[in-house]
Specification:
about 400 residues, alpha+beta, 2 domains, Ubiquitin-like (UB roll)
Chain lengths: ~400, ~400
């Protein structure tokens, strides 16, 4: 088994074509409609937001996956409008998007998945989707993954694409993906929008398990601002075009490649988090259980005081301890430790403030690692976040104006 | 029973004197040592942070209240240094602060309570406390409550004082208080620092119950940034100097006055929250239980997307729905409603976007009310928070530099 992370995206695996066009949904005329098509029906799996206010496209995609038994030919995605909290009318629009796409692609409607991202609570202009769809179909190409990745962006400062190659049963296969997301990012069992393809053949139950496994330590381990959106979705399509087939024996190879792609995309989201200037890796060790490790790491990664201190380059380890202490996990102050980069600042109940200048120098970098040992056990967890800057406030105070 | 909120503070009740002096702990030479003394031993109750990293003064005050059976003569408080995460040495310093105060005031050491606030993890300079204490004793006065309220401030933009008068069993009695707090504010069963006095006589179990009752809907219902500090403390001293005695029959009158003082102080903390420009009242209705109502209200009040939208004057009700949906409470999108001021923006599954201009006009004000109906039951909860501004980031990125 070899896994390599390569440049590429959703059209890196064989038998997938994509397009990104401008349908006029975004006021600035940018790309806002993406279409992804598999040449043959692909096995499909997805994870969706657990937000109780689920957007219309989430409801439609979930229903289609159930009706099709996990098969998809096409994914239609618009940016600029989330089609969330839009009532029965929004549901009709999402259904019509799927039906129009199915007619153009030539497949049953339940083989089309739908996703939307943008402002919540605004009606999605169906006429613009309808006039954009034929252009998207004409633009479809095996070299158009990058355009699709741009067409799903909202406040993202750059597109997120990744691909991995692996060998399964002696055959080369690949996994490719694209994602969007910058604010309202703390996926809960699912995430923002991400679309992943593979040309391996993977039976549906195994594909489903692989997606959940890969998402747990990637998309579900990032946070920008502790917010879980109404539209979070990760979809994975496996069309078998490489001739490689994944069974239980090749599961680890496949999930390794899949996890690599998911991690690249997830880190891209954090690097491009609203207002972000630094990528922060938060590792919690010494936890009583994996769940408590994850809970403490998320609490630290979501702390505005930790995130502003890192933004300001201040090795204020006391804030890390204070968050660990309030995270609702077992915590022993006398055994706890805080490390910034490789510099220990607090250990066995005592500060090492003489180390603060070295940590302050380290914090000038763009990639920051902080670690907290809870002193309560052996479990660990790593999550990724970004710093909190005045730019985050500016972006979100002015989002709709 | 009459309750009136009046200007005043910890020395408004009879038989209390206070002082605020500069002991040189703050680098800028500001007031940083406060002393509060009751002429006679007072019945005392306190609630402390539930953060697992409890500061030395929290440990010492808790132990003294246990040893004394709920009696106190004096409270010694410093700002500029939290004496938290400072190990055995920090504990010795807190104990010495109490012992020195007891000797000067002339009372048993367990009748002295201690509190500290400021940077975490830095050693508290005992020599400065010791040289400041005699000056504080000399400065004690029944008209020095305002100086004490200034001496406990850190990043607070203004001091917080309040008082209330009530009649108990035909006798006039009063309750007074002071508080500090601006950042690291989401009290969990306790809060920042607040010191409350009353000249009513209140038996200890009743005093304890009254404090918990009053704190639940005041200090525990506010949040600035979702952070719970290592030093959160509310102390209440009742010295009986008014001749009024609270028994079960007068409990409601007393707790009404106490709640009034706590609410004034708590709202003062939110108004003076780090970077705050608006006071925001978040009301959740239609919840399945009071706990779920509180959880949803806290989630909304802590949401950076809601707080930045309010900062920017954007009636972005979709963010309120999105937070309610992820708050882990029962929620029915089809019955939910969002109101900003008195303007309904979302109801019965449908937006009222024609109302957005009116809500935008309302959001230009300094006192903002938002309400979300979860459509799931009859329970309600109100919490208070402030908006999130770029100034919050500036304050906390530069806190120690």
């Amino acid at each position: 088994m070899t896994v390599g992370i390569a440049s590429g995206g959703v059209t890196t695996p064989q038998g997938f074509r994509a397009a990104g066009v401008s349908a006029g949904i975004k006021a600035n005329g940018g790309l806002d409609l993406a279409l992804l098509v598999s040449e043959t029906p692909a096995t499909a799996a997805a994870v969706f937001t657990i937000n109780r206010a689920q957007a219309a496209p989430v409801l439609v995609s979930r229903e289609h996956l159930t009706r099709s038994g996990g098969v998809a030919r096409a994914v239609i995605v618009n940016s600029g409008c989330a089609n969330a909290c839009t009532g029965d009318e929004g549901l009709q629009i999402a259904n019509t998007m799927a039906a129009d796409t199915a007619r153009l692609v030539g497949c049953p409607v339940e083989h089309v998945l739908v996703a939307s991202t943008g402002v919540i609570g605004v009606a999605l202009p169906l006429d613009k989707i309808r006039s954009g769809l034929p252009a998207a179909l004409r633009a479809l190409g095996a070299n158009q993954g990058a355009a699709a990745a741009r067409a799903i962006m909202t406040t993202d400062p750059f597109p997120k694409e990744a691909a991995a190659r692996t060998t399964i049963g002696g055959r080369d296969a690949s996994v490719g993906g694209m994602a969007k997301g910058s604010g309202m990012i703390e996926p809960m069992m699912a995430t923002m929008l991400a679309f992943i393809t593979t040309d391996a053949a993977v039976p549906q139950p195994l594909l489903d398990r692989a997606l959940r496994d890969a998402v747990h330590d990637t998309f579900n381990a990032i946070t920008v601002d502790g917010e879980c959106s109404t539209n979070d979705t990760v979809m994975l399509l496996a069309n078998g075009a490489s001739g490689a087939t994944v069974d239980a024996g090749q599961y680890d190879a496949f999930v390794g490649a899949l996890r690599g792609v998911c991690l690249e995309l997830a880190l891209g989201i954090v690097r491009g988090g609203e207002g972000a200037t630094k990528l922060v890796t938060v590792t919690v060790t010494g936890a009583a259980s994996p769940e408590e490790a994850r809970r403490a790491a998320k609490a630290i990664a979501n702390s505005p005081l930790v995130k502003t201190a890192i933004h300001g380059g201040d090795p204020n380890w006391g804030r890390l301890i204070a968050v660990a202490g309030r995270a609702g996990v077992e915590f022993d102050l006398g055994r706890a430790a805080v490390t910034i980069g490789s510099t220990v600042l607090f250990e066995a109940g005592k500060p090492h403030d003489d180390n603060a200048p070295r940590a302050a120098e380290y914090l000038k970098g763009k990639e920051i690692a902080v670690a907290v040992d809870l002193g309560a056990g052996r479990a660990t967890s790593t999550v990724w976040t970004c710093d909190l800057s005045a730019e985050y406030v500016r972006i979100n105070a002015d989002y709709r104006t």
